[in-house]
Amino acid sequence: MRGRKPDLKAIEGGLSRLPPAPSWLPFEGKAEWRRVVPGLSQRKTLTREDLPMLEAYCLSAGTVRRMQATIAAEGDMVENDKGDRKRHPAFQTLFQSLTECRRLAAELGLTPASRNKAAATEGDDDLSDLDL
After folding, report:
1. In this predicted model, what pLDDT tens digit does every residue of 47-58 receive, in sequence order?
2. How many CB atoms lie within 10 A of CB 32?
3. Alpha carbons 33 and 103: distance in angstroms, whole number
4. Burial bucket for residue 12 (CB in 10 Å: 0-12, 13-18, 19+)
5. What is the separation of C-alpha 30 from the centre of its chain, rounded to a whole number of angstroms?
6. Which of 2, 90, 105, 130 is the most exposed place for a label (fewest CB within 10 A)?
């Protein structure tokens, strides 16, 4: 892709100030909240109705970090009662959280592709070609 990437535009009702991280978020989720909120506030791309999605994203991102730390501390493989070695059970939670985190990041405009897509489609509200 050549040229300058389109800028995201503020949306009507977009919040310029987002609240602090919810108290129920784990430490890692609060850290992600503090990391992404300044950019989202500056772009004014979120409304009050989007806050639960932001909470879910931060929870997923925090879970990814916690599961990775667990695997790093305990090893990739664990031994069960019978002495069989199996992949650490935290991998399943890690993969599920990564999938959810990636999906929510795209919804929130936190990925380069989603930011470009949102900017490219903004203002395309001409409905004259529809038979309404």
Report:
1. 888 899 999 999
2. 22
3. 16
4. exposed
5. 13
6. 2
Phi, psi dihedrals of residue 78, rounded to the nearest 5°: -125, 160
Mean pLDDT of the chain: 82
Phi, psi of 55, deg, nearest 5: -60, -45
User: What sign results for the dihedral spanned by CA atoms 115, 120, 125, 129?
Assistant: negative
Question: pLDDT tens digits, residue range 99-129?
Answer: 999 999 999 988 877 766 654 444 444 434 4
Domain extents for the chain?
A: 27-112
> Which residue's structure tokens are 């879910």?
56
Helix (H, G, I), strand (E, B) or coil at 57: helix
Across the chain, how many H-helices and E-strands are there? Answer: 4, 2
Rounded to whole angstroms, what are the CA distances from 103 to 34, 49, 132? 20, 18, 33
- pTM metric for this prediction: 0.76
Kindly state the tokens that stand for 1.
Answer: 């892709």
Burial-class residue 85 by CB neighbours within 10 Å (0-12, 13-18, 19+): exposed
Count CB atoms within 10 A of the CB of residue 91: 15
